[in-house]
Amino acid sequence: MKKKVLRKMALCLGVTLMFAGCGTNNGKNQETAKDQETEQGASGDQETSDGQDASDGQEDAGQDAGGKDVTLNIAYQYGLAYAPLSIVKEQQLIEKAYEEATGGKVTVTWNQMSSGADINTGISAGSIDAGFMGAAPAITGVTKGVGYKIFTNLSGQEHGLMTNDENIKSFDDLIGSSNQIALVNIGSIQHILLAMALDNAGYDPHALDANIVAMAHPDGMTALQSGNVSCHLTSNPYIFKERKESSLYEIKDVTEAWGVDDSFIVGVASEAIHDNDPELYKALCSAIEEAVNFMNENQEEAAKITCEFDGNSEQEELEFIQKSKYTIETSNLFKLATFMAQTKFIETAPESYEDLVFENVSGN
To answer: Which of 257, 290, 323 is the last residue of a domain?
Structure first.
């Protein structure tokens, strides 16, 4: 009897252990599967040994076979100098170019910032992939090793220095005074053009550095109109609007220092985009070129599109566009960099034009 009881107990214990073991293995398999799913989800484009997507046949929505989904973060600023970007955004030119080339999808995010310095910070931190800014801060970023180069020119624009004080007629009336000059930022293209105008007139290029107060273009115009600052150095369309006001006056030296044919706004792209995702880089370049061509060949149609972004009437927008120069070819970029080095705005002078730009860029 005892033997029968012992046999039954042993049999029950064996069955129990067998099911316990099966339960443990199932738990481990489930955890492994979850880990694998997590790893595959994190990689997004994990490939099998034959080069096909690991989730072939179960592609994510919006992802075409053979392509991949990517994100492109772009930063830009204010004014008609950036008008071609409105065309790029409205017509989804980057998205179309990338999908045509790769079969994949690109999500483009647009970030409007107040200065080139902010864009430099974003690219350095990795939160911005490409940005559009004045040629001067772009040169600064390249020479400081932020991690980008210039991939295109965008526009040339007329600049002007306006004042609400009729007694301020020249630099002589500003140097040594407490009059504030609103412009985008220290080291901005406007700051460099002010220094260039001072240098051309025989003054110390840094003679008015202490008078500068940093403001985005729209804020600077408002401050000038309200009397919160004495002067505002700005470009299209703000300079043309300010010139129409009878209570404002212009100091001509800045306008003569750097003309509409000279590079004003350029585009920069991170070396990571250029080196690691050439198809995305090409899509970006081709989209900008297409938008610039559209601006030049369809000015009235462009004005209808861009006025929605700039807050101008169609008639005003067309007038301002016609006073601009939109081109992907740089002009006097290396000359500007040389001046910046000579006047200590940058520590290291580029040795050549090619030090500033990627291989696809033409100009000087």
So the answer is: 257
* Res 17: pLDDT: 36
- In this structure, is residue 230 part of a structural domain? yes
pLDDT at residue 92 greater than cutoff 50: yes
- C-alpha pair distances (Å), 364 with each of 89, 199, 240, 328, 354: 28, 22, 28, 12, 9
Short-list 358, 362, 352, 355, CA closest to 284: 358
The number of folded domains in the chain is: 2
Q: Does the structure show a pLDDT above 90 at 16? A: no
15 within a domain of the structure (yes/no): no
What's the CA gap between 177 and 163, in Å, rounded?
A: 14
Q: Whole-angstrom Cα distance, residue 159 to residue 323?
A: 11
Residue 154: pLDDT band by 50, 70, 90 thresholds?
A: very high
Say how many CA atoms lie within 13 Å of 241 toward its Cβ. Answer: 22
Same domain, 73 and 106: yes
What is the Cα–Cα distance from 160 to 244, expressed in whole angstroms? Answer: 13
Cβ atoms 152, 266 nearer than 8 A: yes
Tell me the per-residue pLDDT of 53-76, one tens digit each, with 9 for 90 and over: 433 433 333 343 346 899 999 999
Show which of 216, 235, 257 is a domain's final residue.
Answer: 257
* Residue 140 identity (one-letter amino acid): T
> 157 exposed, middle or buried (CB, 10 Å; 0-12, 13-18, 19+)?
buried
pTM here is 0.79
CA distance 60 to 252: 58
**Angstrom distance (rounded) from CA 115 to CA 137:** 9
The single-letter code of the amino acid at 128 is I
The radius of gyration computed from the CA coordinates of the chain, to the nearest angstrom, equals 29
Is 13 contained in some domain? Answer: no
Q: Is residue 12 part of a domain?
A: no
Residues 318, 308: Cα–Cα separation, whole Å: 12
How far is residue 52 from each of residues 57, 105, 154, 285, 291, measured CA to CA in Å? Answer: 10, 17, 38, 28, 35
| Residue 292 lies in domain | 69-157+262-355
Cα–Cα distance between 152 and 322 in angstroms, integer? 21
Query: What's 105's domain CATH number?
Result: 3.40.190.10
Joined together, the tokens standing for residue 180 give 């504030």
